[in-house]
């Protein structure tokens, strides 16, 4: 949870919010939005890992 707080404080969306965006797109049966949300989440995760 602390990492989510740090992301939000740094002006980035939280991992929880990113997961919820993917879930909501799937629930809405919107594959394009689900893919976009998943790609955004993965990009954010990669950036966080690279930042250390």
Question: What does this molecule look like?
Answer:
The structure is a single chain. The chain has one domain (2-51). Helix content is 81%, strand content 0%. It contains three helices and no strands. It is elongated and about 35 Å long. The two termini are 17 Å apart.
Total number of beta strands: 0
Number of domains: 1
- Total helical segments: 3
- How much strand? under 5%
Main sheet overview = none
Principal-axes shape call? elongated
Can you lay out the helices and strands and say which pair or pack?
Elements: H1 2-9, H2 15-27, H3 31-51
Helix pairs in contact: 2-3
Spell out the key features of this protein.
elongated, 52 residues, disordered N terminus, mainly alpha
Would you summarize the structure shown here?
With 52 residues, this protein is mainly α. 81% of the residues lie in helices and 0% in strands.
